[in-house]
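2024-03-11 09:14:02 INFO worker-7 job=invfold-0412 stage=load source=structure_tokens
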């Protein structure tokens, strides 16, 4: 059995979306759509490069890194690639060279989930760490037109065969080769992608539910990436499943933080559950983390809180 733990945070500076979008050349009408329909008001911003942001404090100096057998750095934008190499070299030093390291951008926003699946299949290896850091330091990474505004965040996931706060239950992946062009695909192809996006997320979630086959009383928290509330409300309506609670509380204050979204939202969800928020007053039985990467990569990771830790939701 694979166990999972994580740590994550976002940049401290919060920038109004008006500022971000005006700098990218958008008019007031577009800003109003983003704010009111997609429910994004501000995003965390770092003025540093991914390398500087990731290592500006002790975030990546956790003891777990030194004992890791395998260590990956995942990120979304290919523009980050040179910084990814720098991060890998620094991580190698932090881990004292004990682990085998590699980096991945292959599935864009779904890269972290893909590497989680890769690592959990190597269950004989007891210590495996995945570090993610994406920052929107270029215009192409700051905005996904018509969908969201991006924020800056970092996270690390620890996989262990002995202990952790969560049990890894399932991984699902659906890939659509027709859209491998991503941001550079032809307009007609991209139009098809946009029209079928929600249906493909629905298909992914239904596949994940079929894999775990929950009993009718099970409560399942859907932990989506922070594209926008509007899209997730439409997906929730399409599914029409009363067992599912969609948690979109991270969208307004964080925007889309690429591969770190799931772990930012897990932390927020835990905090709200402990505080007795009406929508998550009881500890979910499963956490279904869902993401989609530009280029036709749709992935989910299903987690279950370890029994020893479930009481913490009610303290």
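2024-03-11 09:14:09 INFO worker-7 stage=emit residues=315
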């Amino acid at each position: 059995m694979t166990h999972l733990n994580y740590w994550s945070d976002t940049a401290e500076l919060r920038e109004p979306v008006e500022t971000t979008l005006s700098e990218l050349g958008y008019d007031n009408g577009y800003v109003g759509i983003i704010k009111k329909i997609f429910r994004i008001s501000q995003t965390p911003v770092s003025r540093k490069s991914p390398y500087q942001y990731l290592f500006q404090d002790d975030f990546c100096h956790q003891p777990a890194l030194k004992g890791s057998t395998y260590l990956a750095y995942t990120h979304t934008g290919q523009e980050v690639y040179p910084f990814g190499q720098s991060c890998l070299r620094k991580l190698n030093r932090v881990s004292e060279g004990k682990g085998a390291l590699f980096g991945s951008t292959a599935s864009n926003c779904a890269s972290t989930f893909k590497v989680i699946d890769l690592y959990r299949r190597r269950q004989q290896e007891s210590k495996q760490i995945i570090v993610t850091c994406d920052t929107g330091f270029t215009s192409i990474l700051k905005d996904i037109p018509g969908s969201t505004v991006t924020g800056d965040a970092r996270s690390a996931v620890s996989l262990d065969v002995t202990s952790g706060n969560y049990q890894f239950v399932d991984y699902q992946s659906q890939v659509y080769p027709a859209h491998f062009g991503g941001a550079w695909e032809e307009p007609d192809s991209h139009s098809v992608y946009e029209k079928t996006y929600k249906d493909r997320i629905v298909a992914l979630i239904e596949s994940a539910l079929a894999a775990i086959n929950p009993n009718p009383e099970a409560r399942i928290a859907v932990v989506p990436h922070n594209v926008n509330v509007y899209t997730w409300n439409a997906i929730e309506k399409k599914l029409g499943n009363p067992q599912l609670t969609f948690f979109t509380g991270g969208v307004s204050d964080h925007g889309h933080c690429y591969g770190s979204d799931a772990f930012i939202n897990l932390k927020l969800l835990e905090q709200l559950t402990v505080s007795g928020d009406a929508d998550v007053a009881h500890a979910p039985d499963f956490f279904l983390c869902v993401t989609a990467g530009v280029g036709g990569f749709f992935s989910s990771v299903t987690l279950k809180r370890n029994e020893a830790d479930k009481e913490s939701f009610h303290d």
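2024-03-11 09:14:09 INFO worker-7 stage=report msg="Residues 310-315 have pLDDT under 50 and may be disordered."
2024-03-11 09:14:10 INFO worker-7 job finished
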